[in-house]
Amino acid sequence: MSTKKIAQDSPLPNLNRYITAHDESTGKAIFSNAVPEQNPTQVVPGAVFRQGYVTKKFPVQINGDEDLNGYKSFLESPPGLVNSTGTVLRIVDCPPQSTSPMHRTVSLDYGIVLIGEVDLLLDSGEVRTMKPGDMAIQRGTMHAWVNNNPTEWARLAFVLQPCEPVVVGGKALEEELADMEGVKKSE
Known about the structure:
By secondary structure, the chain is mainly beta. The protein has one domain (40-173): Jelly Rolls (Sandwich), CATH 2.60.120.10. 6% of the residues lie in helices and 37% in strands. It has one helix spanning 66-76, and strands at residues 20-22, 29-31, 41-44, 47-54, 88-94, 98-99, 107-115, 118-122, 127-130, 135-139, 143-147, 154-162, 166-168, 171-173. The longest helix has 11 residues, at 66-76. It is globular and about 55 Å long. The two termini are 30 Å apart. This is Cupin domain-containing protein.
């Protein structure tokens, strides 16, 4: 299994995001053109990230396009894996025969397999094989994602939410990114 930085982009279809807003004069729903519809991509060790949306705080303030303005700043300087005060929507494409670095985020993450099959590997050695539609509720634990398929890419969707510090056995656990080159620590 490779955890090296992949040199190619995912062959899976590009994804568009459609952000809604309100017409100020009529109050009717419209589609916003504040940011491009195509998701930006970032190649990291063992995966391709597609940043769907990021908010600066929770609950989210959508009045005055505060959330959109905050998201624009994240497009200029992508956050770490987690935004410690807001939410992150990310699509992750995993290449064939790859394993992400073992890592921990201090967050509550919802992960859903969209395409392919992946193993969720915990640092205890426990593994669950996930198929399309399967969900992982990741609660601040050390984990890695494994795509064992020799030829097919896998795609997962994640919603990451900040959480209170994770304390186990009286010790606060911290974010651990291992050797995730190109991914900065969460803010």
